[in-house]
Amino acid sequence: MKMKDSKELLSSVLKTTQMGQVGIRSVLHTPMRPTLRRALESQLREYDAIEDEAHSIASRRGWEVAELDPMAKGMAKTMAKVRLRSGSTDSKIAGMMIQGNTRGMIKGLKNLHQFDDKDMPLTTLCQKLLDCETANIRQMQGFL
Question: 7 and 60 in contact (C-beta within 8 Å)?
Answer without folding.
Answer: no
